[in-house]
Design goal:
The chain has seven helices and 50 strands. By secondary structure, it is mainly β. The protein has four domains: about 100 residues, Immunoglobulin-like (Sandwich), CATH 2.60.40; about 150 residues, Jelly Rolls; about 260 residues, Trypsin-like serine proteases (Thrombin, subunit H), CATH 2.40.10.10; about 180 residues, Jelly Rolls (Sandwich). The strands form nine sheets. Strands 12, 20, 21, 22, 23, 24, 25, 26, 27 and 28 form a ten-stranded mixed β-sheet that branches. Strand 49 and strand 50 form a beta hairpin. The longest helix has 10 residues. The two termini are about 30 Å apart.
């Protein structure tokens, strides 16, 4: 398989952060069987608390805000390898620390490591006792200047923390669990689609905007679900800035950070570090909402600005989201007169992404006078023409007719049966009403500029990751089914002569495949799931297996106050995402499929018979692959809801330097797996930095010669960022490797072409 290096201009090009996030770095924990008989001291049990009292307190906090919707109780802890759990050493010298945490009755448990610094080669995992939900590995790549790490929820009332440290590490890892959060409410995503609250059933899934065009889909990629401090839901949006430098600014509401203004003098830097953002939590269908993918998250942000007088909050994620997250930075309009119509894209109650529409807004006072917020600083939506907002929608962006953010939700009184009176703090008033940079937007979004308008930014526009989908392309996302045979087996499930299915994607060139979406129904078989997600190359049919990945998620549920647990992939209709450990390069046509390895009911949704005429689905019968439409037992054209995420590549001028006067010349020599750099005569010394898509620095060098070559024989396929700096001069990438490309000087950061 060919190895391709792709470089992309994306960040403020020389401020690279080896940040910490939910992005894991591969590997697996040790088998858990060895600790099944461990002494009781292996587990730390959280004390009981009065749940009814907590629910009562929650109900009393509502004050007209689209409140941040608390779902968990916080325990302050102090667990380290020195005072909790068990430690032992493996035969190869690897030191292992394991700690079990139990909180009886918890729907889920999430952690905050208040001390986190790992040596190179060490790995941290957090998982359930069955090892079906595994968070990590977290490594030295997750180290940060703040030395903390929030970890997203693991469902159930028992979790295991496991730390592996190689022998002869330069230092012992520093780990301290300072917070354990016991979720006493089901996340809204746990109840979708069944039992959807009537309070926001009228707020349509974002998928429903597809018939009206893609702009809402595009800006909708900027909207993220937030879990704040391990206990609250809110909504936020990534926003661009006039430098167009790719800094991942995150706009939300201040009351999401200060517990509805109840915390006096909050440490916003600390709170920002405890945020987890979920990307692409969308329903794949419109008419019957499904639970979305939960596999794309990032943890922690930097505090940039908060103005409690207007409810504005601006954070910055510690690193740019990976390319396969498909992030988008929304543009904004901080003027006094944005144009209609207006759309709010939100996560009501922590649910999948929804949107509401209004024809008019006007500057007004916030209706709850007890909060004493700034006068005439809020966009008042007197009436929604479609939808409303709900608890957990706080911080969600309000877009104008140009799909630019004009404000973010503070609160209001709207419901499906009464879609009236919501209030969004205005970017217009929060722009520079206060001189201090920590309380205004202008300093961060438009430094040294007067413009109050900014377009959006796709940070990976020169080589975007795309979700390919024959179901969406045909507009059939609401015409899907799981057909059964006469003996009650799923047509695209396990049979005596068939257990493997695939979806064909016609590809005239070369792509890098990052992973695959699967849309699966609620299935009855709930034990012993053993399913592989497979990637094949092949001109006319699947021929060469390129990669495979296990598919085995789980999810708990609450019913009538009782806790249960079921396999996520089988519990309810939903969208899932499986990412390859390493992106895979494919030349020509390829196939995404699944293989059922044991006697369990499993399938994906497929387009209903008669809805499409061109078949793209395949089945393996015996040793032979056949088109589904040509199999007598099926005999109709369809498409499976198996959607790969890919980036298209090309081989044009792969090894030829591009002659551009007065610019840095860079070329990639495929045969030698090397990068060759030529500096202009007026740039005798510079700093060279190569960073991968997760923000990890691959190489950093000082350049003293006019021509320099670096070889990377083992660099995996993926997205990379190359930067050159000399004094105040900043040079950024304008074309991709493996092409020859030029770097252009830009005083402000990146040059996007």
């Amino acid at each position: 398989m060919k190895t391709t290096i792709i470089l992309l201009c994306i960040l403020s090009c020389f401020t690279f952060v080896s940040g910490f996030s939910q992005i894991s770095h591969g590997g697996k924990p040790l088998p858990y069987l060895s600790t099944k008989s461990a002494p009781a001291a292996f587990f730390e049990s959280m004390p009981a608390f009065d749940l009814q009292e907590q629910l009562c307190l929650d109900s009393m906090e509502y004050n007209g805000l689209r409140n941040s919707n608390r779902f968990a109780y916080k325990f302050m802890t102090d667990f380290t390898p020195d005072n909790a759990g068990m430690t032992y050493t493996l035969a190869d010298g690897t030191r292992v620390w394991r700690l079990g945490i139990r909180s009886e009755g918890a729907v889920s448990i999430n952690l905050l490591f208040t001390e986190y610094e790992l040596p190179e080669g060490a790995s941290l995992f957090v998982y359930d006792p069955e090892q079906k939900q595994i968070k990590g590995s977290f490594t030295s790549q997750n180290n940060s200047e703040r030395h903390i790490l929030p970890v997203s929820p693991v469902y159930g009332d028992e979790i295991i923390v496991e730390y592996q440290e190689p022998a002869h590490s330069p230092f012992h890892g520093r780990l301290r669990i300072g917070e354990v959060n016991h979720a006493y409410r089901s996340l809204a995503r746990a109840t979708e689609p069944a039992g959807e609250p009537s309070s926001y059933s009228c707020i349509l899934p974002l998928t429903c905007s597809l018939p009206d065009g893609d702009p809402y889909q595009k800006v909708g990629r900027s909207v993220v679900e937030l879990i704040v401090d391990g206990t609250y839901y809110c909504t936020g949006s990534l926003v661009n800035n006039l430098q167009h430098d790719g800094k991942p600014y995150l706009l939300t509401a201040s009351h999401c950070l200060n517990e509805d203004f109840t915390i006096k003098n909050p440490d916003y830097e600390e709170i920002a570090g405890k945020i987890i953002a979920f990307f692409n939590y969308n329903s794949p269908t419109c008419e019957s909402p499904m639970r979305g993918t939960e596999e794309m998250s990032m943890a922690s942000a930097y505090y940039r600005a908060v103005n409690e007088n207007t409810d504005m909050a601006l954070l910055e994620l510690t690193e740019i989201p990976p390319v396969y997250y498909r992030p988008y930075y929304a543009g904004w309009n901080a003027s006094e007169s944005p144009s209609a119509p207006f759309a709010c894209i939100q996560h009501p109650g922590g649910a999948t992404k929804r949107f509401s529409l209004a024809d008019q807004i006007a500057l007004d006072n916030f209706s709850d006078s007890s909060l004493k917020l700034a006068s005439m600083s809020f966009w008042h939506v007197a009436e929604w023409t479609q939808g409303c907002t709900a608890g957990g929608s706080s911080g969600s962006p309000l877009f104008d007719s140009n799909y630019q953010v004009v404000g973010a939700l503070t609160g209001g009184n709207s419901y499906c049966y009464s879609p009236y009176n919501d209030y969004f703090y205005s970017l217009y008033y929060s722009w520079e009403n206060v001189a201090e940079k920590e309380q205004q937007l202008k300093y961060w979004l438009a430094p040294n500029q007067t413009d109050r308008l900014c377009g959006g930014l796709d940070p990976y526009a020169s080589a975007p990751a795309l979700r390919l989908s024959h179901v969406f392309e045909n507009g059939k996302y609401d015409q899907i089914e799981t057909r059964q045979t006469s003996d009650s087996k799923y047509v695209f499930g396990l049979h005596d002569d068939a257990c493997e299915y695939a979806e064909k994607y016609t590809n005239p060139g070369r792509v890098v495949v990052y992973g695959c979406y699967l849309v699966t129904p609620a299935l009855s078989g709930r034990t012993g799931l053993d399913v592989d997600i497979c990637l094949y190359a092949g001109k006319e049919k699947p021929e060469t297996l390129l990669a495979s990945q296990k598919f085995n998620p789980v999810y708990p549920y609450m019913e009538n106050g009782n806790r249960g647990e079921t396999g996520k992939s089988l519990a309810r209709s939903q969208e899932n995402f499986v990412v390859w450990d390493t992106p895979v390069e494919v030349e020509g046509n390829f196939f995404i499929g699944y293989r059922i390895n044991n006697a369990v009911d499993f399938c994906t949704y497929a387009v209903k018979e008669g809805e499409i005429t061109q078949n793209t689905a395949w089945v393996k019968q015996g040793e032979d692959w056949k088109e589904v439409s040509a199999v007598s037992d099926i005999g109709f054209s369809t498409a499976l809801f198996l959607d790969p995420v890919v980036s298209y590549q090309s081989d044009e001028t792969a090894n030829e330097p591009l002659a551009v006067q007065e610019n840095i010349l860079v070329s990639y020599v495929r045969s030698e797996k090397s990068i060759h750099l030529i500096l202009p005569q007026n740039l005798p010394e510079a700093t060279y930095v190569l960073v991968d898509s997760s923000g990890r620095i691959i190489d950093r060098q000082i350049i003293y010669e006019s021509q320099t070559t670096w070889r990377y024989p083992n660099l995996p396929v993926g997205m990379y960022i190359l930067s050159i700096q000399q004094g105040s001069q900043k040079y950024t990438l304008s074309v991709l490797l493996p092409f020859a490309f030029r770097m252009l000087p830009d005083q402000h950061g990146c040059d996007f072409v």
